[in-house]
Amino acid sequence: MTLETLFAASHIYLGNTIWYLIVFAILLLLVKHYAWGPVSEMMEKRRQKVIEDLDSAASDRKKAEVLVNEREAALKDSRKEATKILSDAKTNAQKASDEIVANANNDAVSIRKKAEADAKQAKADALNDARGQVADISVAIAEKVIAKNLSAEDQKDLVDQFIKGLND
């Protein structure tokens, strides 16, 4: 190739390149003026919204953690209170049971003592009645013996009459 053809070919390429650069610069200015501003503004709004959403999510997470901790503390307190209530109920039930048993034992002892006293009194009354009856029988027998001399048959009749008199 000759130098002239080479120079003519490079001149064509150089002219196209300059033209492309000028068109590119114009397009770049048009894009910057009409598209870059609104796109940048939209991207900034989006960035602010994402930041707000992240802050809101972090705040909500912290609030949720606080609520979880409060609920866990309340649950622990309820469990402790329930345990205390059960313990108190068992203690009260045991005390009531012990008191009922003690009262029943005291009542049984007093009933036993009263029964023993009543039995002793009944025995004493029965002995006194028996002594009185024996004394009356002795006096009656003595009166009849003195009144007449009795044969064996008379004595038997006298005892039978006396026994018959006791039954009536």
Task: Summarize the structure in short.
The chain is mainly α and 168 residues long. It is 96% helix and 0% strand.
Any chance you could write out the topology, listing elements then pairs?
Elements: H1 3-147, H2 152-167
Oligomeric status: single chain
End-to-end Cα distance, whole Å, is: 178 Å
Strand content: under 5%
Mean pLDDT: 81
* Radius of gyration using CA atoms only: 65 Å
| Total helical segments | 2
Query: How many individual β-strands?
Result: 0
Overall body shape: rod-shaped
State the domain count.
1
Subcellular location: Cell membrane; Endomembrane system
GO cellular component, one term: endomembrane system
InterPro entries: ATP_synth_B-like_membr_sf (IPR028987), ATP_synth_b/b'su_bac/chlpt (IPR002146), ATP_synth_F0_bsu_bac (IPR005864), ATP_synthase_B_chain (IPR050059)
Pfam families: ATP-synt_B
Provide structural commentary.
It is a single chain. The mean pLDDT is 81. The protein has helices spanning 3-147, 152-167. The chain has one domain (3-167). The protein has 168 residues and is an all-alpha fold. It contains 2 helices and no strands. The protein is rod-shaped and about 200 Å long.
